[in-house]
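Hello forum,

I keep getting stuck at the same step: I have a sequence, I want structure tokens, and every attempt I make locally crashes halfway through. Rather than fight my setup again tonight, could one of you with a working pipeline run this one for me? It's a single chain of 226 residues.
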Amino acid sequence: MSKKSRKKSSKTPSGSPTAKKKAPKTRATTQTKAAKTQRTPASKSTATIAKTASHGAASKQLKSSKSASAAKPVLTEGQKAPAFRLPRDGGAVATLSDYAGRKLVLFFYPRADTPGCTREAIDFTRLAGAFADAGTAVLGVSADSLKAQEKFRDKHSLKVPLISDEKHEMLEAYGAWGEKSMYGKSFLGILRTTVLVGSDGKVARIWRNVRVDGHADQVLEAATSL
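Reply #2:
Ran it on my machine without issues. Output:
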């Protein structure tokens, strides 16, 4: 073999420097494509999750607005007082018809034997005789059990009947059940409310967001002037 032929053959083997330089470039390109292929589904998945979350939020707002529009109308003065039939302390049953032809005060309180509710019930007990002279009956209403109501009555020597509305039927009918907030959190509960029903069976006065101090005296004045 001539020297010229040996020089040519030495430049062409597969293990030549030229072949070695091209191989890494090919592998790098392959790895880049693979990485892009793996990233693409991830970005699509993220978009899908975001879209689903957005749809979920919209659904919650829709349900919320629907429930708000479906809420019962609020009781107003001049309307006929909603009928009720519920157990009261002592094992009897109290109904609206029991007080037909008489004025009736219904004071709705959040919970038996708590400070504000205790003061309110004691105030109405203190004025029980004056309400009777004004031809007005007085009933206390909460969602406490009958046993809790009777314990409340005995502990503070209360002289007004106490109604147990554990299913919130009367509370809702009289607008004394709704959204409350405490420590930045919202929840459903009893709204301190008092309703004065006239002898004609219609709502004469409604006190909402009641402040306990002096409240029973204000109600007595309204009942006396009715």
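The longest strand covers residues 136-142. If your local run keeps crashing, start a new thread with the error log.
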